Amino acid sequence: MNTEGEAAGDQAGDQALSGPQRCGLVAIVGKPNVGKSTLLNALVGQKISITSRKAQTTRHRITGVRTEGNTQFVFVDTPGFQTRHSSALNRSLNRAVTGVVGDVDVVLFVVEAGNFTLADAKVLALLKPGIPAILIANKLDLVHRRGELAPWLRDMQQRHPFTEFMPISAKNPKDIQRLLEVCAKHLPEQPWWYDADELTDKSERFMAGEMIREKLFRLTGEELPYTSTVVIDKFEEEPSPKFKRMVRIAATIVVERDSHKAMVIGEGGEKLKRIGTEARQELEQLFDAKVFLQMFVKVRSGWADDEARVRSFGYE
Questions:
Q1: Alpha-carbon distance 296 to 26, whole Å?
Q2: 179 labelled ligand-binding
Q3: Cross-sheet strand order for the sheet of 290-299
Q4: If 23 and its partner were Cys, which of 72, 119, 125, 301 is the partner (CB 3.0–4.6 Å)?
């Protein structure tokens, strides 16, 4: 039985939820390997963007959705802006970044707290006037003397008229909640674009390729060039008397040299087996299904410099 206080609280909550809906696009931008994908996963509350220590892991615009109260946040994680090489792959990644920053409601510009490099400056130059930009000073947990941040923050304000400064750690739930509240203020009143329980606009087929690529990078270390990729050849759901849901996937890992192929397969096939096992376990959790995963490794020399092949492998 409700007390009067509980009844009043319920009524206030109902009124809040029946108010105007807010919905808008929030772009997450920054140089490679600055923590954008980790931040996206924290903001959505579910792993939808792969992470690894290897720079340039994210290669696509990954949309993550979080619905909280009256507000639906549509986050767009972008590849790190490439400044070192000008391959067809890198040009594709940069188009993904520049195509986002001018058409959003708010931008989260992610830098490592206390640092600002030439690579950061090149991303900052992409920000459009008139779009609110929030400076995300990430990896705050790695800064030992917080007092040193004050002059750095003043310097950052001179570089760009940021709407807000937010020193955060993506691992801290309170920081993430605070960031959501700040973002919400900049989103327009309009109907939601997605159902309340949706987390991403990416297909399961796409997510399968991404999770395999993450395990590939994590388990091969720095030796394997980042130009390696994964192509999903088959993604089929099959009826099963034993499992409530069963998915059969065939995937090809594409590398540029025979030596890279040997590295991925490993001695006696052990490395490839481990990549497959870890990817399958994560996909079963993500899809809530029994997953059968078959993997192959093929050499496609020079694919990252071939515009047509880059497009055929699913890059914009």
A1: 37
A2: no
A3: 229-238, 246-255, 290-299
A4: 72
| 34 labeled binding residue | yes
Q: What is the pLDDT of residue 246?
A: 93
Task: Answer yes or no: is 140 a known binding residue.
Answer: yes
pLDDT tens-place string over residues 250-303:
999 988 888 889 988 999 999 999 999 999 998 998 888 999 999 999 888 765
Is 37 annotated as ligand-binding? yes
Q: Is 78 annotated as a binding residue?
A: yes
288 belongs to an annotated ligand binding site? no
* 36 is known to lie in a ligand binding site: yes
Binding site annotation covers 20? no
Ranges of the chain with pLDDT below 50:
1-16, 52-59, 80-85, 87-90, 92-94, 96-98, 310, 312-313, 315-316
Domain-by-domain residue ranges, the chain? 19-184, 204-312
- Fold (topology level) of 19-184: Rossmann fold (3.40.50)
Say whether 30 counts as a known binding-site residue: yes
- 32-37's contacts with Cβ under 8 Å and 24+ in sequence apart are 32/56, 32/79, 32/80, 32/81, 32/82, 32/119, 33/57, 33/80, 34/80, 34/110, 34/111, 34/112, 34/138, 35/110, 35/112, 35/138, 35/139, 35/170, 36/77, 36/78, 36/80, 36/110, 37/62, 37/77
pLDDT of residue 101: 59
Asked if residue 172 belongs to a known ligand binding site, the reply is no
For 204-312, CATH number out of 3.30.920.30, 3.30.300.20, 3.20.80.10, 3.30.390.30 equals 3.30.300.20
Q: Which residue has the tokens 């979080």?
A: 66
Is 273 annotated to bind a ligand? Reply is no
Q: How far apart are CA 51 and CA 41, in angstroms?
A: 9
The reply to whether 199 sits in an annotated binding site is no
Q: How far apart are CA 81 and CA 58, in angstroms?
A: 10
Q: Which residues are paired to 246 by β-bridges?
A: 238, 290
- Three-state secondary structure call for residue 124: helix
- The reply to whether 71 sits in an annotated binding site is no
